[in-house]
Each structure stands twice: as structure tokens, then as C-alpha cells.
Design a protein that fits this description.
The chain is an alpha/beta fold. It contains eight helices and eight strands. It starts with 6 loop residues before the first strand and ends with a helix. Belongs to the short-chain dehydrogenases/reductases (SDR) family.
Length: 281
């Protein structure tokens, strides 16, 4: 796909999925800013050399990519990334929030520091990034925002014990997607999400995987970032080079908020009696 003349930001862009997205966008002609704090697998610490090395490697391929090593857990850090991008390239067309962290802590053990780390990258960062990117995206001819969710959060059968904070943050990004897809509708800002399955360091994988490769997710992200994507408010699930799109849709016949067009019940006992039909409605 042709991204000539476009400027993109990819957070978590120095490794894994983010690096694959950034390379593909740049190969398509985009100017790309990869932002990565260089945290360890526990989501802690920082190492600016990680993103600088990634940017230099892409530059060696002849691609227009620069690195940013700032902290996106704060309003100020997100504002600085947008300003850095505008200073370097003068515009912003595509914002991909890929940065994430998988940490395990059972609900009984949940502590404030752990929760804050999960919320910082999965809730605060996308909100602050979108806030500061928004006025610049309004000037783009094809503005695109892509957030990142997870099948682990969306589907109960894929949940794992200890992922309560992670799941809360990944579901939060779907709420942001829905709200901003509505807010950006008249301006043409398309806001969608990717739910990727890929073997990266988040899985503890450091060698090249023979399945679930990050680059097999990338075509879905490129489509969402492109002018060919005219939809908004969709979740693209991607795994092993396969893609399916889903979204939150209302049942037919509903006249919200007064008529759900479903099972009537006037007491808790009536709800209990009708529960098998309510579950199927």
C-alpha cells in the first residue's frame, strides 16, 4: 500500500509487532516515528538505546524512520511525542498505539503500583496521545488511529488467571475506540483496533517463531492505516496470517434506551425463570 506523503507514529515500535508495523509503513513511503521507552519484560525501567538502534537499523535499509525514547505514561510525555513528530515532519496522519505490557497478578494480590503500570500504558497513554494528536489529525486528508486490544480480554474462554489489570486496560481501549470513532466521524478520523496474536518477547520468545509471526499481523494494521479503510469502530483480529473483523452491534429491533426488544420480566423470580431464553436473546 502507498503511504507516500504520510507521517505515522508507532508506539512500542522498537521491537516485535511495532517494529514490523513501522518497517512496513516506511517501505510504503511513510515517514515514521517509532516511540519506545525500552522497558524490560516486566514493563519497568528504560533504555533509550533500544529505540535508537531500531531506528538506525531501519535507516540503514533506506527508510525514513526516527526514534523517540520518551515516557508515554504521562500527559506531558505524550504531548512531547506529538510535538517531536510535528517538529521533524510537520504533520501527523497515522497514530498506532501498539505499546503494551503483559503482567500477571491475581485480584487478591493486586497492588497500586502494578495497576498503575497497566493503566499507564493501556488507558492513560492512548487517551493523552489521541488528545494531542487530534488537532493535527484534523488537518490530514486521511487521518487514522489504531489502538490495540486483546482476545484475552474480549473472550472469557481465552482469559488467564492474573490478567485482570491487563484485561481492564485492553477493554478500555475498545471504549476509547467507540467514543472516538463517533467523535471523529464528521472529520473523517477513522478509529479502529487490532487484536493481534503473535509470538514476541511478551511471550518470552526471543528467537524467530515458526508460527504466529508478528509480520503476519502487519497486513491488517496496514489496511486500517490506509485510505482503503473507510470503516471506523471495528476490531480486526489477526493470527497466523488470518483476519476477521468484529464490532459491538445492537440486537435488531431495539429502540434504545426504552425498548430492548427482548424478554420481559417484572421480578427477580421472572428473570430466573426466563434465564435460559434471556441468555439466548
Amino acid at each position: 500500500m502507498d503511504f507516500t506523503g504520510k507521517t505515522a507514529i508507532v508506539t512500542g515500535g522498537a521491537r516485535g509487532l511495532g517494529l514490523s508495523y513501522a518497517r512496513a509503513l516506511a517501505l510504503g513511503g511513510a515517514r515514521v516515528v517509532i516511540s519506545d521507552i525500552g522497558a524490560d519484560t516486566a514493563g519497568a525501567g528504560s533504555d533509550a538505546s533500544v529505540v535508537l538502534a531500531a531506528a538506525e537499523a531501519l535507516q540503514a535499509e533506506g527508510l525514513t524512520v526516527i526514534g523517540h525514547g520518551g515516557d508515554l505514561s504521562t500527559n506531558e510525555g505524550c504531548e512531547q511525542l506529538i510535538a517531536y513528530t510535528l517538529e521533524a515532519f510537520g504533520q501527523l496522519d497515522i497514530l498506532i498505539h501498539n505499546a503494551g505490557w503483559v503482567g500477571y497478578q491475581n485480584i487478591a494480590d493486586l497492588d497500586a503500583a502494578f495497576l498503575e503500570r497497566a493503566m499507564a500504558i493501556n488507558l492513560y497513554a492512548p487517551l493523552w496521545l489521541c488528545k494531542h494528536a487530534w488537532p493535527h489529525l484534523l488537518h490530514s486528508s486521511a487521518p487514522r488511529i489504531i489502538l490495540t486490544t486483546s482476545d484475552r480480554a474480549m473472550y472469557a474462554q481465552y482469559e488467564q488467571t492474573g490478567l485482570v489489570a491487563y484485561s481492564a486496560g485492553k477493554m478500555a481501549q475498545l471504549g476509547i475506540m467507540n467514543a472516538l470513532s463517533h467523535e471523529g466521524l464528521d472529520a473523517g478520523i477513522k478509529v479502529n483496533a487490532i487484536s493481534p496474536v503473535a509470538k514476541t518477547r511478551m511471550w518470552g520468545v526471543t528467537d524467530e517463531p515458526d508460527e504466529l509471526k508478528p509480520e503476519w499481523v502487519t497486513p491488517g494494521v496496514l489496511f486500517l492505516a490506509s485510505t482503503q479503510c473507510e470503516d471506523t469502530g471495528y476490531i480486526v483480529r489477526a493470527s497466523n496470517g488470518q483476519f476477521t473483523a468484529t464490532r459491538f452491534t445492537e440486537n435488531p429491533g431495539v429502540e434504545y434506551p426504552r425498548n430492548l426488544a427482548r424478554i420481559k420480566a417484572d421480578s427477580a423470580e421472572a428473570v430466573a425463570a426466563a434465564w435460559p431464553r434471556i441468555k439466548q436473546a
